[in-house]
Specification:
31% strand, single chain, globular, 9-stranded antiparallel β-sheet
Length: 189
Amino acid sequence: MIHFRPRLLSAVLSLALPLAAASCTEPLTPPSPGPLLFEVEAINFAWGRHWSGFVIDAEGQVYAYDLSSTDLTPPQGDQFTAAELEAKYAHARRLVTSVSATEAASRYGRVGAVLSGGITPPQSACFDAGSVRYSALIYDESTGAYRRLLLREVGDLARANTSPAAAELYHWLRDVVGNSVSGCDPFDQ
């Protein structure tokens, strides 16, 4: 039968907990960038069909896409194959602006710090504004798949990654593509 010794247990815990906390504060290694780095996606079906967005690639090219005239529905989940994203971004694709490849890579380098943040519970922010989701795209070269990493979501329901790096990337993306749902972000007060 095992007998716990309270003094021994408290001594071990007092040594182990600070070590565990120290390892949580170390910066995470940023993921290697894939061909696609960031996405801003706007969806609103309140007063008609609107589904469009922007994608920033590794060269710093910012493309707009628009699926509003299709009968497609936004997929559930945050995992996508490269082919699924390329098909999504091909609809009404047009180059709208660019940033330097160096700036795009530098901004993507902050994704490692975003990984340490949690996601806030959703808050009601607006009505009939839909949703605009600002995300980093994490590429897994071994599978050829992407995972969406939420930076901020604004609109009817708002959520935010709690990492300061996520807020920094959100503001940068908003400046690059424009702020399309102003006033629907309770985290930016």
